[in-house]
Specification:
This protein has 15 helices and no strands. The longest helix has 29 residues. By secondary structure, the chain is mainly alpha-helical. Helix 14 runs antiparallel to helix 15.
Length: 308
C-alpha cells in the first residue's frame, strides 16, 4: 500500500506519518497523567475544549461561509472524529494501561477498510489485506499477554478494551467521511470547525456537569494535570488533527490510518518509562505489527506496475 501521491508528496506523506506517530503515541501517557486528578469525563471534555479554543481564530471566520449541509457533515466529523473518542479513550484508561490502550488503537485500519467497503465503494488489494491481517494478529497477541504467563487468552481480556474498539470504529468512519465528504474544504477548516461545533456541549458538560473547576482550585497536583491535558488537547488533538486531515487528503484513508500501527511503539515506550511492564509476548506482538506495516506499504518492484 502506498500513499496516493508522487515525488515530493510521497516524502511529505511519510514525514507526516512519522510526526503523527510521535504525537499521538504520546497521547496515552498524557491521558494517564490527567486521570490522576480528573475523571474520565473531565479528561475527555477538557481535551475537546482546549483543542477547540486554541483553534477559534481559525474556525470562527470560516463558519459563516459554510452551507447547512457542510455544517451538518462537520458536526458528524466532530462527534465521531474527536468528541466521542476523547471520552472513550479516557474511560478505557481508567482500567487499562496507557501502553495497551495505544496498542488497541491499531485496530483503526481494520475499521477503515470495513466502513470504506460497506459504505464508500473502496477496494483493498491482497497485499493490503495481508498486511492488515498480520498487524491485527500482532494486536491480538499484545492484548492477550498477561503478567505471569506468555498469553492469557481472550477470557482474560479487560472489558474496558471495548471502549477503545468503539473509539477505533469512530475513527474508521471519520477517515472515510473526510476523504469523501470534504473535497472542497481545507484540512484546517475540517479540524477547526468540527471542533468548534462540538465545543458548546463539551464546555457545558465540563463546567456544569463535573467538578473540574473545583478540582483545579483545591486538588493537589491539579495544575500539573491540567498542563498535561492542555498539551494533549492543543498538540495531540488540534494540531495533530490538522496534520492528519491533510495527510488523508493527499494520501488514501488506509495509508493515513497506518499511523495507528506505529503509535503502539511510542505508547509502549512511554509506558515502560513510566513503570509499566513489558513482557516477552509484547515483543512478539510488536514485531507482528511492524511486519504488517511493512508488507502493507511495500511497493512492487516492477516498473510498469503502479500500486494504488
Amino acid at each position: 500500500m502506498t500513499p496516493n501521491t508522487t515525488g515530493d508528496q510521497t516524502l511529505r506523506s511519510w514525514l507526516l506519518l512519522a510526526l503523527l506517530s510521535l504525537i499521538w503515541g504520546s497521547s496515552f501517557i498524557l491521558i494517564k497523567k490527567g486521570l490522576v486528578v480528573f475523571s474520565a469525563g473531565e479528561v475527555g471534555a477538557y481535551r475537546i475544549v482546549s483543542a477547540a479554543l486554541v483553534l477559534l481564530p481559525l474556525s470562527l471566520p470560516r463558519l459563516k461561509k459554510l452551507n447547512k449541509k457542510q455544517v451538518g457533515n462537520l458536526i458528524v466529523a466532530g462527534l465521531v472524529g474527536s468528541f466521542i473518542p476523547a471520552f472513550l479513550f479516557a474511560k478505557a484508561q481508567t482500567q487499562l494501561s496507557s501502553s495497551i490502550t495505544g496498542v488497541l488503537n491499531a485496530l483503526t485500519p481494520l475499521f477503515v477498510v470495513i466502513i470504506g467497503a460497506l459504505f464508500f465503494g473502496s477496494k483493498i488489494t491482497g497485499r493490503n489485506s495481508l498486511g492488515l491481517i498480520i498487524a491485527f494478529i500482532g494486536v491480538v497477541v499484545l492484548i492477550s499477554v498477561k503478567e505471569g504467563s506468555s498469553f492469557s487468552g481472550f477470557a482474560d481480556i479487560n472489558g474496558y478494551a471495548f471502549f477503545v474498539i468503539l473509539a477505533t470504529l469512530c475513527y474508521g468512519i471519520n477517515l472515510n467521511i473526510i476523504k469523501h465528504w470534504f473535497v472542497a474544504l481545507k484540512p484546517v477548516e475540517i479540524t477547526a470547525i468540527s471542533l468548534l461545533l462540538v465545543l458548546p456541549v463539551a464546555l457545558l458538560y465540563l463546567m456544569a456537569g463535573t467538578e473540574f473547576s473545583m478540582k483545579v482550585v483545591h486538588e493537589e497536583g491539579a495544575l500539573l494535570a491540567v498542563g498535561y491535558l492542555t498539551i494533549l488537547g492543543v498538540l495531540g488533538t488540534a494540531i495533530a488533527l490538522i496534520i492528519f486531515n491533510g495527510l488523508v487528503k493527499i494520501a488514501t484513508p488506509v495509508f493515513a490510518s497506518m499511523v495507528t500501527y506505529l503509535i503502539p511503539i511510542v505508547a509502549i515506550a512511554w509506558g515502560v518509562i513510566d513503570g509499566e511492564v513489558l513482557l516477552p509476548g509484547h515483543y512478539i506482538g510488536i514485531v507482528a505489527v511492524i511486519l504488517g506495516v511493512w508488507i502493507g506499504n511495500r511497493k512492487k518492484k516492477q516498473k510498469t506496475v503502479t500500486e494504488s
